[in-house]
Design brief:
By secondary structure, this protein is of the alpha/beta class. The chain has 2 domains: 146 residues, Rossmann fold, CATH 3.40.50.2300; 145 residues, Rossmann fold. It is 44% helix and 18% strand. The chain has 12 helices and 12 strands. Strands 7-6-8-9-10-11-12 form a 7-stranded mixed sheet, with helices on both faces. A 5-stranded parallel sheet has the order 2-1-3-4-5, sandwiched between helices. It starts with a helix and ends with a strand.
């Protein structure tokens, strides 16, 4: 009788053990770390990223988890936050913006990294080539270097009489974009004025300097540190009576004159597809870096009227959205 009981218990143990292991495996869901210099409130791609993953079959809490880390504009905090994600042993990290990418690369060489919203990852030293990124990093690029020439062309088309255009940016992105800017300025017969800023506190002075130097318009280069200041920057430009073109639509939505660049929401959706492939076993080094598939032009007619400008009908026709 005793041997029968023991035998029954051993049989049950054999049957239960695989089920327990299977349950444990089912209970372990992959976790995605998101690292951004911006704040949750200023993020324009968070919803698009989550929705894209839902469309791919991921349900938060069931088969995916998120670890959000926002630096709220502090570059110093990024390395600390990146270290937190590494210690949590997340399965993949989405790093948004160049500062976040650098922090993530410094924190790990083994956890797969997906980059989002970066201009030129090759010149920035993040990847070897777009086709063969190498290492543990891949993702999408905003190819900002190729957009500045079109941005200058758009400004000149709206303000054809302009002869001087201020270019506002940090020392780093001004130096990186300058060859393309000079080439475009020569073709459009305009002079460029350098407006250097090292932090948001210098923006007011930069617009005042542009006015004193006789600039007729301003091109603002991509600069992630101002993501939470779009409305204030748009107001500064209007107060200075300077038609200004920006690199993403959120500026135009809060009163900026014109925006032309890669769709951040589209970049977020495509970043989600990289996360999906990596979670399914593809190595980052085997996933080529993709360039934007969707560029968008957004015009703000209210701001144009406030500046006393008439937007040509041909440009209105080209616009993806006109804010009235």
């Amino acid at each position: 009788m005793r041997r029968s009981v023991i035998g029954l218990m051993l049989t049950l143990a054999v049957l239960v053990t695989p089920l327990t292991v299977e349950a444990q495996l089912r209970g372990k869901i992959p976790r995605v770390g998101i690292l951004s210099l911006s704040s949750a409130e200023a993020s324009s791609g968070k919803g698009a990223f989550q929705q894209a993953l839902r469309d791919l079959g991921y349900v938060e809490g069931q088969n995916i988890g998120f670890e959000w880390r926002w630096a709220d504009g502090s570059s110093v905090r990024l390395r600390t936050l990146a270290g937190e994600l590494v210690r949590l042993k997340v399965d993949v990290i989405l790093a948004v913006g160049e500062d976040a990418i650098r922090a993530a690369q410094h924190a790990t060489t083994t956890i797969p990294l997906v980059m989002g919203d970066v201009g030129d990852p090759v010149k920035s030293g993040f990847v070897e080539t777009l086709a063969h990124p190498g290492g543990n990093l891949t993702g999408v690029t905003a190819i900002a270097l190729e957009l500045v020439e079109k941005q200058l062309e758009l400004l000149k088309g709206v303000v054809p009489e302009v002869t001087r255009i201020g270019v506002l940016g940090t020392p780093y992105n001004l130096a990186r974009h300058w060859p393309e800017l000079e080439h475009a300025a020569h073709a459009l017969d305009v002079q460029l004025q350098v407006l250097v800023v090292r932090g948001p506190e210098e923006l007011t002075r930069a617009f005042e300097l542009a006015t004193r130097r006789g600039a007729g318009a301003v091109l603002m280069l991509p600069w992630v540190h101002v993501d939470s200041n779009e409305r204030w920057i748009a107001e500064l430009a209007v107060q200075s009576r300077l038609p200004t073109i920006y690199w993403h639509r959120e500026f135009a939505e809060v009163g900026g004159f014109m925006a032309y660049g890669a769709s951040r929401r589209d970049l977020a959706r495509r970043a989600a597809s990289y996360v999906d492939k990596i979670l399914k076993g593809t190595k980052p080094a085997d996933l080529p870096v993709e360039q934007p598939m969707k560029l968008e032009l957004v015009l703000n007619l209210k701001t144009a009227q406030a500046l006393g400008l008439t937007i040509p009908p041909t440009l209105l026709f080209q616009a993806d959205e006109v804010i009235r």
